Amino acid sequence: MNDLWGMRTEKIDPALLRYAEILYVKHNKSYAEIATEIDFPEQLIVKFIEENYLDEKRKSNNVSPRKSMKLLHTMLDDAIKKFDPTDITKAKEFDQILKYTAAIKNLETGVTLTDIVDVFEVFILWLLPIDHELTKQFSLKLNEFINHRLKIEDD
Prior knowledge:
By secondary structure, the chain is mainly alpha-helical. The protein contains eight helices and no strands. It is elongated.
């Protein structure tokens, strides 16, 4: 069976592809850096990234709940530092503090799929040099799990 590159599927290690995805999406590595890191031709990396819509995933990574939470906490801290509770003309500033607080609460609703994926990606990167075969198996199961969760969230 051939894969997206016209190569035999069994020659392409899913763990390496997952690793390439992590390097591109999470670590903002270039095509050339990824190709060097996993010892694949750069053209194949480009094709893999395009066909798996990883540019979109990379962009959406910048608005993850964790990053939004950090930004909101920074904005809240700045607003609190500037706020003078004795000045009754500062109602707008107080309202903004309440909005930041509410937004933070909304993001703290629990563990998201993004949080789970982030933890698994760190684990995969840790496991890869230790046990390549286990990483490959684990990556396949992780992909099945993510697809399953996405189907549940879409319903």
